[in-house]
Design a protein that fits this description.
The structure is a single chain. With 378 residues, the protein is mostly helical. It is built from 13 helices and no strands. The chain has a domain at 282-378. It is 75% helix and 0% strand. The protein starts with a helix and ends in a 14-residue tail after the last helix.
Length: 378
């Protein structure tokens, strides 16, 4: 069940990431403000320089500067893509086939390569992806910007591959140690992923950073597990992912981890995944932690106008309610009565959500995830 939920979580995150086009960071610390790529680079660069000058002179504060920049960005004409979407999709498919072919060639000769040869065979395409991603990602063409983001995502994976070869074959002579591999590989990948995200806080860069962070956290748990034969505790893994998800959610809802929608979405999912993993060790803790987390996510979603957090919380409510009913009632009431109770609970939840939706809509209107455009100062 955990594996299925993890797959669904990854699919949801990637689907949302590919559907969102813009980062929300600005030089003035309001990550909900569109970036410079939303406007012609010359005009936006001049505006940003003047706003920084006015902030430094004390004429306006950073919030007012963000309001001006957001207003100008939202009223700037969109930059149309000169590359048809179908052509872009076909290009990605072709590139994927080329990468697969190269991977097969290298894979068939992997055992015959020396350690240096293995490192070189992974380093060259990784460096190529970094350079190509830097060149294409800086263009105003949206298709090229997407390509640059994808290339840097692949470069993070390539960096992890190089780190794994160095750790196992160069440092430990081809024999992976019992502990430390995940931490070393995840840490190296996280360094590059964090750098890429700081340079370009886009969707795929945040996904790469989250994946590398998860690997690093799991590596730390593995390194602290000094017993040679013991596996990582599900409780430790679940709690670590739970708190990492909470931190990621906070970064998104507090507008400190752009793109904020993706951060709050992936953080919310990670919270529920962590609680589900805990159940392998502790049923009581996992069940009530999961239910409380789902309710808290719904509250946060409503209070912060984060519709994606509200939706994940709703899914979590339907995820944990039947688990609690089955765990506590099946032996007492029997399978048939328990199913009746679960069905009744679902009907009640559906009714509550039906009553909740108009209230949310009346409170936030069409401004969910889209704060109203402020009037520029002066």
């Amino acid at each position: 069940m955990v594996n299925v939920f993890l797959v669904v979580a990854v699919v949801v995150v990637i689907a949302v990431a590919t559907s969102m086009r813009r980062s929300n960071a600005t030089p003035f610390g309001d990550p909900r403000t569109p970036t410079a790529r939303d406007q012609p680079s010359g005009a936006q660069s001049h505006l940003g320089a003047k706003l920084r000058e006015w902030v430094g002179a004390g004429l306006i504060d950073p919030d007012q500067a963000s309001a001006v920049e957001r207003y100008e960005a939202e009223h700037a004409p969109d930059v149309p893509s000169r590359v048809p979407l179908a052509a872009e999709a076909i290009g990605y498919i072709g590139a994927g086939l080329v990468v697969a072919a190269v991977a097969l060639v290298v894979g068939n000769r992997w055992d015959d390569l020396t350690t240096t040869g293995r490192i070189v065979s992974l380093t060259i395409p990784t460096l190529a992806a970094i350079v190509a991603g830097w060149w294409t990602g800086g263009r105003e063409e949206p298709a090229l910007e997407r390509l640059g983001s994808v290339l840097w995502l692949l470069a993070v994976a390539g960096t992890a591959g190089v780190a794994a070869v160095v750790w196992i074959h160069a440092i430990h002579d081809g024999s992976a140690p019992d502990h430390g591999t995940t931490l070393f590989v995840g840490g190296i990948a996280l360094c590059f992923a964090l750098t890429a995200w700081l340079l370009r806080p886009l969707e795929f860069q945040q996904i790469a950073m989250l994946g590398a962070t998860i690997a690093t956290v799991l590596g730390i748990i593995d390194a602290l597990n000094t017993s040679r034969d013991a596996s990582m505790s599900s409780l430790a893994v679940g709690l670590s992912l739970f708190f990492l998800g909470a931190a990621w959610l906070a970064g998104g809802t507090l507008a400190r981890l752009p793109p904020t929608i993706l951060a709050s979405l992936s953080g919310s999912i990670l919270i529920l995944v962590g609680a589900q993993i805990i159940r392998n060790d502790n049923d009581h803790l996992a069940l009530w932690l999961g239910l409380a987390s789902a309710v808290a996510l719904m509250v946060v979603g409503v209070a912060r106008s984060e519709i994606q957090v509200l939706l994940v919380g709703t899914v979590g409510l339907f995820q944990w309610t039947p688990q609690i009913a089955l765990f506590y009632l099946e032996d007492t009431l029997g399978a048939e009565a328990t199913l009746f109770v679960i069905g009744t609970l679902f009907i009640v939840l559906a009714g509550l959500l039906t009553r909740l939706y108009p209230w949310v809509k009346a409170r936030h209107g069409n401004n969910i995830n889209h704060p109203p455009t402020p009037t520029p100062v002066g």
